[in-house]
């Protein structure tokens, strides 16, 4: 009977840990736009206010231990140690327990993260967007685009954008415009840094978003996991837009408009 009890206890403990792991396996985000992406093998940390990196990890009861792959078996490396203060289906709270953990998010305070899939800012009011991208060592598309709140779009194709060449104007479809707004509402735009480090021989971007009466401008190689969906949309949205050639040169697009109403 005692043996059966021990076996039952071990099975129950295993299932609890498995359930905990399953809840952990998702992309979490804090209120500054930092991503904490967890799967069954590793944790990827990325964002404008934290040290990015990929880590192996293990969970011991309510303790999360993270180490980089190259130092996983090094006994001198204590890793990054957090206490899991809270874990539910849509929220995760971590308490840094050592200096390495403090450094990751640059705080000693409790870190609150939520399931990225439920994040949505319904107070976000889109006004206007300007975006330009450069070429790179390969064939990165170079283009300039302006999108307004009435779905109107101005587009300049410079290089590697497909069949379109030159200047165009037109409109986004309702479906594509709704997709853009959905992307913008999901991410804390104002928390993004104004300057991302340019990649050597990589594509660089210039992005300005007007919303709720404010202007947010970003330069550099915008490569955060939080911005991937937005950048991918802006580089490809002309493919599904209703466009016609503009007989007037849209050269003024090469310099961002000073006001949202321009």
Overview of the molecule:
With 262 residues, the chain is α+β, with helices and mostly antiparallel strands. It folds into two domains: 26-118, Beta Barrel (Lipocalin); 126-254, 2-Layer Sandwich (Mago nashi protein), CATH 3.30.1560.10. The chain is built from four helices and 15 strands. The protein has helices at 2-24, 99-105, 174-186, 228-236, and strands at residues 27-29, 35-38, 43-46, 53-60, 63-68, 80-87, 91-96, 111-115, 126-133, 142-148, 152-159, 166-171, 205-211, 214-220, 242-245. It is elongated, with a radius of gyration of 23 Å.
Condensed summary:
The protein is an alpha+beta fold.
> What's the CATH topology label of the largest domain?
Mago nashi protein
Poorly predicted tracts of residues: 1-18
The sequence of SSEs as H and E is HEEEEEEEHEEEEEHEEHE
For this structure, what is the CATH homologous superfamily of the largest domain? Mago nashi
Secondary structure class reads alpha+beta
What is the CATH class name of the largest domain? Alpha Beta
Number of strands: 15
Main β-sheet, in a few words? 8 strands, antiparallel, barrel
Number of helices: 4
Q: How many domains comprise the coordinates?
A: 2
Quaternary structure of the protein? single chain
Rg, nearest Å: 23 Å
Coarse shape: elongated
Proportion in helices: 10-25%
SS strand fraction: 25-35%
């Amino acid at each position: 009977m005692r043996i059966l009890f021990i076996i039952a206890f071990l099975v129950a403990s295993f299932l609890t840990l498995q359930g905990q792991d399953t809840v952990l396996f998702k992309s979490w985000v804090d209120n500054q736009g930092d991503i904490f992406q967890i799967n069954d093998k590793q944790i990827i940390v990325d964002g404008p206010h934290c040290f990015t990196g990929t880590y192996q990890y293990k969970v011991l009861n309510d303790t999360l231990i993270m180490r980089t792959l190259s130092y996983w078996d090094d006994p001198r490396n204590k890793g990054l140690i957090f206490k899991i203060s809270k874990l539910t289906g849509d929220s995760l709270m971590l308490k840094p327990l050592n200096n390495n953990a403090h450094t990751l998010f640059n705080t000693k305070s409790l870190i609150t993260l939520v399931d990225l899939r439920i994040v949505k800012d319904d107070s976000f009011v889109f006004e206007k967007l300007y975006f330009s991208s450069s070429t790179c060592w390969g064939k990165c598309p170079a283009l300039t685009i302006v999108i307004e709140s009435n779905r109107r779009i101005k587009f300049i194709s410079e290089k590697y954008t497909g069949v379109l060449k030159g200047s165009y104007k037109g409109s986004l479809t309702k479906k594509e415009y709704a997709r853009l707004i959905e992307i913008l509402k999901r991410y804390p735009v104002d928390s993004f840094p104004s300057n991302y480090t340019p990649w050597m021989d990589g594509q660089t971007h210039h992005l300005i978003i007007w919303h709720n009466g404010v202007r947010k401008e970003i330069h550099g190689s915008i490569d955060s996991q939080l911005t991937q969906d937005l950048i991918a949309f802006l580089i490809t949205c002309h493919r599904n837009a209703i466009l016609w050639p503009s007989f007037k040169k849209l050269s003024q697009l090469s310099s961002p408009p000073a006001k949202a109403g321009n």
